[in-house]
Amino acid sequence: MRRYQLFELLDQAWLPVRLRRAGAEYLKAAHGTTALPALWAATIVRVIERCRLHQIVDLGSGCGGPMELVADEMARLGCRPRVTLTDLHPVASTSSMDYWPEPVDATEVPATLPGLRTLFLTFHHFAPSTARAVLRDAYHQREPICIFEATTRTAPAIAVSFLIPFLVLLVTPSIRPVSAFQIFFTYLVPVVPLLALWDGLVSQLRTYSKAELEGLTADCSSTEYCWECGYIDAPRIPFRTCYLIGYPKPEPIR
User: Fold this and answer.
1) Cβ–Cβ contacts within 10 Å for residue 76, how many?
2) Which of 45, 69, 151, 178 is the S-S candidate for 203 at Cβ 3.0 to 4.6 Å?
3) Across the beta sheet with 225-232, what order do the strands follow?
């Protein structure tokens, strides 16, 4: 199945901020019901320990994204790096983590933000030329990068997408705190379920396959920098999702 570079509603500047936040709150709550944050955290801890780092720079954080869930899982593993949330269009966030106030372009991350770069559920938004630029910037600055998706371009994943409106109805009560706005536009006027359905379906169709991710790293190859691409199998999710990590080979301890 070919990849489609379609648009997602939550990315649109004309969408009211409160609706964008409501969609993001649903996604965060939904991912919190799965094992994905724990599996992502385990991979990140492995890279942090290998590279001997204490700082994470989360790119494309939006209103906070899954990073808070992942940080909690990392803490359970005894790893508590400093986390800085960033976005090309920074927004007000209720997260307790640091949020970089200036715009951060994932293709040109400033040297003032060193550390492991993470992208959760955002890499599929980038067209191939931009995606390559994101990887090249990490490679040239010799910074590690971890990319995770919760979607995949397969028939089972696309079929599951049509259940998303019902999942929104089920998951929304678990949002803490849940606002009257979220309740109104979920149950009385079902805007959030429809937004989530469209964006979920489009996300599946935009997601890069393992072979495509490996191809994007082709011009960022050297003996000093390693790439690893694989699958994550999460319980109760009927499809596998891809991950891509890159990191410079650590200097030997003397």
Assistant:
1) 10
2) 151
3) 98-99, 82-85, 55-58, 116-120, 145-148, 241-248, 225-232
Domains of the chain in start order, with CATH, are 35-155+206-248 (3.40.50.150)
Number of neighbours of residue 236 by Cβ within 10 angstroms: 7
DSSP assignment of 96-145, as one string? SSEE-SS---TTS--TTS-SEEEEES-GGGS-HHHHHHHHHHHHHTT--E
Cβ neighbours around 193 below 10 Å, total: 20
Q: Which of 213, 241, 240 is nearest to 228 (CA)?
A: 213
Which residues neighbour 54 within 8 Å (Cβ) at sequence distance 6 or greater? 48, 81, 82, 115
Closest CA to 242 of 202, 198, 197, 212: 212
Three-state SS at 254: coil
What residues does 241 pair with on adjacent strands? 232
C-alpha to C-alpha distance for 192 and 24, rounded to whole angstroms? 10
**What whole-number distance in Å separates Cα of residue 89 and Cα of residue 105?**
9
Under 8 Å CB-to-CB from 69, ≥6 apart: which residues? 28, 31, 32, 37
pLDDT digits (tens, 9 = 90+) for 10-54: 888 899 989 988 998 999 899 999 999 999 999 999 999 999 999
Tokens matching residue 135? 């990887």
Which tokens hold the place of 38?
A: 């724990």
Query: Which run of H or of E encompasses 249?
Result: none
Specify the DSSP element, H or E, that contains 245.
strand 241-248
User: What would the pLDDT profile of 57-95 be if each residue is shown by its tens digit?
Assistant: 999 998 788 999 999 999 999 999 999 999 998 877 667
Please tell me the pTM assigned to this model. Answer: 0.93
